[in-house]
């Protein structure tokens, strides 16, 4: 394997860390103000100066509904498409502007500016996603401004902002209890101590989410029915030290761990069973379980070189381990084995949905046969260093950075257990197990970018370049990828309240180590956007954006001869319009109260440019030119409004999604959905607040999709009540 990335990175890191050992983030000159999460936009105000479209969600956007599901939070942002899986947002499937949403692998997910996916190069699938309920904000970048971020940027960038260290000693406690024995606890405490030689800040945080779940696993003669819930626990520690005569140096350490124990299954329902009771699970899935843990660390150093030059350097290390014990295959007595999730001749699993009654009856425990459950036991390790230098010279604001990443993806030795089923007595026990061999995939990558924002008065132009080189290894096979991305964006201030922006930019989604032995090409995109944004009297803010993106060598998950792996599936074009309008009706009409109101709309037309290159029998097979991409509805709407008095507030949120296809052949659809949520609060004192919410208040039954492996339903109506304490 080439050693150039490592050597180059060490040289660059040495230069930045020692040769320029007087640098910091732009906020550093404000002293303790640097005790904030690393941000890629910085504030809502900064959105107004981006050369591309973006969004910044802060506590004012998050507080009204106290959501724990990233799908519910991000639905506020135009251009964001979300496909649920288990109904709680544990495994989000996020798309921006028409890219494939599967496991969010086409979107760069960050936490405080550090990649959060299990292995950003070797396995970007988001089986781990930062816990949305503990975040203080979210940043979403689309368009040419995403050129600074990678590695996967055909879609865009989402940065999760963790709880900042408070500048004064403060503690927060939130607890809620809801239907299905759902309990959410969130507590953090921190502050700053002046040590004389410097100021030490700290934050300790705990987030715990557990529920019995609203799905019921079916009974058999040998087993009673049971709930399908989960426990998720998250802890975090931050330490920050500001030093220097002028508070110009800052060192921050962050450590966190997330544990998940969930009775979640890869197997959905057959069509008829979904129609009969969408909230059921098959009896055989009682053994299905996800057991995972993620640990994360970073050490960040920030220092000011001069009023014109700033620098931040972060060393990070993430580990993620997961064992998803899930049904692998099933066999009726005297029948054929069906490998779950694949198409196998007469035993069809169209779109991943089992259609054979013989096999379904084995799952229910009502027919003789057997099924196997295997430990998908995998480990991911990511370590790296990233540096960002900001330098202002004249009317140029230069932003240069690099990131070196070394990640490892291990398929650990795992067992496959076989359970016998008796049609009279049900599941009667385990009958033997087999072991499968381990394997490993590795990636070493170097990413470098240079962006120059040139201020020419009312007009600002921002050209940029990004270079990526990566060495992939899978077993004995290896391959190298080198790629250069270009982009240019700009803004024009028509007036103090109106701005035009636009840009042309390239993007890519890298093929991963599978390229080493399967010959995959990288997915490439060319995007264009043009928009306006501004404000008018009465606190009205608006944005309207047209976008157009062409994709080549689309990469997606496919089933090839009974083996699941990434594959190139063709070419596509996505174009559409994003719109947002926000205002406070109370202020606008001088009503003596607050009525914050926001409307967002996304229209997307995403189509194949030619027939799919794949004939593998999965949901990507059968496309022709003009077919729509799966799981992308044409129209999405989100409307939120509320009434706030001095001590009381009530809010409504409505999210709508048009129908979408579930396969590239466009033969089956997911229907339209419209979900209405209600929340309210009552302030009891300066430090205490009572709150409650009802999600899906109409109790609409709606389908999330048919991936993975069957029909999946969204959450029913769920009510909860809680209390917040700040002291």
Question: Main traits of this protein?
Answer:
8 helices; mainly beta; Ferric Hydroxamate Uptake Protein, Chain A, domain 1; five-stranded mixed sheet; 2 domains; Maltoporin, Chain A; 41 strands; 727 residues
What does this structure look like?
By secondary structure, the chain is mainly beta. The chain folds into two domains: 4-161, Ferric Hydroxamate Uptake Protein, Chain A, domain 1, CATH 2.170.130.10; 170-726, Beta Barrel (Maltoporin, Chain A), CATH 2.40.170. 7% of the residues lie in helices and 54% in strands. The chain is built from eight helices and 41 strands. Strand 33 (635-644) and strand 34 form a beta hairpin. The N and C termini lie far apart (55 Å).
Poorly predicted runs of 5 or more residues: 1-32, 344-350, 559-563
Straight-line distance between termini:
55 Å
* Overall domain count: 2
* Biggest sheet overview: 22 strands, antiparallel, barrel
Q: What structural class should be given to the helix and strand makeup? A: mainly beta
Annotated CATH topology of the largest domain: Maltoporin, Chain A
How many E-type strands? 41
Strand content: over 45%
Shape: globular
CATH architecture of the largest domain: Beta Barrel
Total number of helices: 8
**CATH first level of the largest domain: which class?**
Mainly Beta
CA radius of gyration: 26 Å
Q: What oligomerization state is this entry in?
A: single chain
- Helix % is under 10%
Mean pLDDT: 86
Supply the CATH superfamily name of the largest domain.
Answer: TonB-dependent receptor, beta-barrel domain
